[in-house]
Every structure is written in structure tokens, then in C-alpha cells.
Amino acid sequence: MTKLSIIIPCLNEEENVEQILNSVTAIVQDTIPNYEIIIVDDQSDDATLSLARKWADVNENSKVRVIYKELHRRGYGAAVKYGLAFAEGEYAIFVSADCVDPVHLMPEMYQLLESGYDLIQVSRYLEKSNSSTIPFSYKFYQFFYRRAVFLSLGQWIPDSTYAFKMFRRTKVLATGLSANRFNISPEIMFKAILSGMKIKFISGSQGTRIGGQSKFKFHKEGIGFGMCLIRAFCHRKRLVYWF
């Protein structure tokens, strides 16, 4: 049985895809049994797909599957949902192809799930030093978003928007994921809380992109993040159910 599915969505990541595969494999190959790595290429315009396939061919024992997403681009959320559809693991995690996630924490996250938790969320705000690499505009937004989350859910959540989380795959899928953009991250967190899952926050810092351009555009993602707040509030108050 596959224990962990590591899903890496890629869109024009030719500068990073080989390095992220090297980094993730080095971390998990001796620490997590029965894992799989799923590269989801979201119709890249560069050499991402061919480089990923070449890496998988050369490293034939690496447990890497490279999937070309045939559906038209819909965003980050659509890409990771596509990966989840092909995943076989009891647990799943999304890893950014741009090498910014603290992948060294994956063995710890895995062990916490094995101990009985349903979702392990890395928070960039539990320790002040961890947020030093985050642009001021994002931290400014997060300051107000965390307070809006408190009003929506009635509890303080240190970090609901960071996509780097490990979770029980079937439990999360059972809530019916609908977001196609980066708001899939708070959607997973809010639905986990509202459904009573056992959640653990651990401290971690987000790195900086090595090559290529970030796909996150604040002005395009704000509406989706706001809709998650409204849906969570309505669900908690039993006005309109989200799932």
C-alpha cells in the first residue's frame, strides 16, 4: 500500500523541476516507506515536461510518475486536484516546484499523521523569524486575513493559506474540493476544521524561488480567498452548507 503521495504541480518550471525532484527524493527515500511522487505538468510552454520525464527515466527506481494534465489550465488548485485523482497514497502533500517549501519537515509531518492526526499544517507565523522571507505586502494581507478567519470560524488559526500541508487523502477528498486556484489551501484547512479533523500546526519557514516566475498573483487570488471565508462562516452558522 502506498503511504504518501507527493504531488508537485508544474507550470513552466524548467529551471526548477530537476532540483525539486532531487531534493524531495533525497528527503523521503530513506525516511518514508512506500511513497510516490507525482509530477503534474499543467501544459507548460517550456521544457518542464520533457525534463521531468527524462529525470524519471534516468532515476527509474525513484517512484516518480509524470502526468500531463490534458484539461485546459484552470490554476494551481485544478492541477493539484488532478494529481489527487491519480494518487494512491493514504496521505498526500502538495510541494511547490519552485523549491520554496521546507521539504525537510516531511518526515516529521508523516510521523505526526501516523500518530493519529488528520492534517499537519506548516505555519510561517508561529515564529517571527520564519516570515522574514515573505514580502511585506503578503504579511500585511495575512495580518488582516487571519483576523477575518477568526471571525469566520470562531478560532485563531496561525496559517491557513500556506499550501504546504500533509493530510489524510480520503478524508479531505470526502469534503468535496472545489477551488481551482490557490484558494484550495484555505478551503482544505477550513473544511478540515469544520468537519472536526484532528489538526497539528508546526513551525516552518518558506524559502525564496530559485528560478522562474511565481504563479501567485495577489490581485487575482483575493476574491477566491474571500469566498472561502464567507462559505466557512455560512457553514459554521448552518446557513448554507459548503459540504
Descriptive notes:
With 243 residues, the protein is an alpha/beta fold. It has a single domain (4-236), classed as Spore Coat Polysaccharide Biosynthesis Protein SpsA, Chain A. Helix content is 40%, strand content 15%. The chain has eight helices and seven strands. The chain has helices at 17-28, 48-58, 76-86, 106-114, 136-153, 169-173, 184-194, 218-236; strands at residues 4-10, 35-41, 64-68, 91-94, 119-123, 165-168, 199-203. It has a seven-stranded mixed β-sheet, sandwiched between helices. Strand 1 (4-10), helix 1 and strand 2 (35-41) form a beta-alpha-beta unit. Helix 5 (136-153) runs parallel beside helix 8 and helix 7 runs parallel beside helix 8. The protein is globular, with a radius of gyration of 17 Å. The model has no long low-confidence stretch (mean pLDDT 93).
List the SSEs and their pairings.
Blueprint: E1 4-10, H1 17-28, E2 35-41, H2 48-58, E3 64-68, H3 76-86, E4 91-94, H4 106-114, E5 119-123, H5 136-153, E6 165-168, H6 169-173, H7 184-194, E7 199-203, H8 218-236
Parallel strand pairs: 1-2, 1-4, 2-3, 5-7
Antiparallel strand pairs: 4-6, 5-6
| Uncertain stretches | none
User: Tally of extended strands?
Assistant: 7
Helix residue percentage:
25-40%
User: If strands are numbered along the chain, what order do they take across the biggest sheet?
Assistant: 3-2-1-4-6-5-7
**Which class in CATH terms?**
Alpha Beta
Main beta sheet strand tally, sense and closure? 7 strands, mixed
- What overall geometry do the principal axes of the alpha carbons give? globular
Strand fraction: 15-25%
Which fold name corresponds to the CATH topology? Spore Coat Polysaccharide Biosynthesis Protein SpsA, Chain A
So how many helices? Answer: 8
- N- to C-terminal distance: 29 Å
Radius of gyration: 17 Å
**Structural class based on helices, strands and sheet pairing:** alpha/beta
Task: Return the CATH architecture.
Answer: Alpha-Beta Complex
Classified in CATH, the superfamily is Spore Coat Polysaccharide Biosynthesis Protein SpsA, Chain A
